[in-house]
Every structure is written in structure tokens, then in C-alpha cells.
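cron nightly-structures :: item 1 of 1
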Amino acid sequence: MTVVAVVLLAVAAAAGAVAWYAVEHRRPEATTRTWLIGAAVPVTLVTAAALFGLAGDPPGSALLNVARVAAVVTAITGGSLVVTALLRLADRGTSTIAEDGVTGDATASVSDPQTLRGGTTIGALERLAVAVTILAGWPEGIAIVLGGKGIGRFPELSQSAAAERFIIGTLASVLWALAAVGVVVTFRT
């Protein structure tokens, strides 16, 4: 059963990378539904891997190392899909019609990558750092990662859309990274 869990985790890493590339490459015309479908792939695979991991015997060291690498890659690739899908959901229903008849947004677009430039790259690095600190047995490292990110973004957080994007993106990113490496943690029980 553990081998199946590791294979599912590796497939989640590969599928997350392919889906991330495919959807990100079409970002301007990608709908919220497209992002949600893209995110559903790694979420489903990670969930299945966790269930098989709970039901299996502890893996050998080689298989455990493969699982660790797959979990880190899954955290990075699948996280971008999950975070962007949630940010797109956060934007739903916020459009308003301005006095000049132009459709605007009451809070600016939370899902617009320009709201906090570099967020995709920072998010991927954040998930990498969170995954590695957990796998290294040093969960306190998450506080350092999040503290550094908060300090670095502090000047931009006075805008409500930026603050909203920061909070949603950070929480979704960290929770996804924890879920991905949580599969490996299930092997230790």
C-alpha cells in the first residue's frame, strides 16, 4: 500500500507540473473553472496518497526518500494551482458598475498577479521552504518563512486587495504544502 501512496504522490507532482504549465500558459483566457479543475487533479491524488499511506507499512529508506522528493515537488507545483483557484474564487461577485458604466472591482482584483508582483515565484519558494522545514523535523522554520515574507511585503499591504491576496495566498500555500508533506508523515505511523 505504501508503494501505491508513493506512486500517487509522484503522479501528483508530475500532474501538478503539467497542469500548472498548461493553465498558467493560458492565464489570460483561463476561467475560474479551469483553475479549479487544474487544482482538483493534485488535490485528489494527494488525498488518495494519504489514504494509501495510512493503510500501508512503513517504507524502506529509498522509498521514503522518493516520497520526500515527490512531496516537495507536489507542494510547489500543485500549490500554484490551488492558490490561484482560491484567489479566483475570492474575486467572484466583487465586480461593480462604476458611474461611467465601466465594470470595475470594489477591491481591485485579488487574483490579478499584478496586485502583488512576483507572488507566483514567492509562493513556490514559500512552499519549498515550508515542505523542507517540516520534512527536516523543524516546524518552527515556518514562522521564520512567514515572518520574512510578511516583512518583505509589508509596504504593499496597505492596499486592501494586496492584503487580501497576501492572506488568502499565504494560508492556501502553507496549508497545501503541509498537506503534500503530510502524506510522508503518514508513513511514519
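cron nightly-structures :: done
The mean pLDDT is 87.
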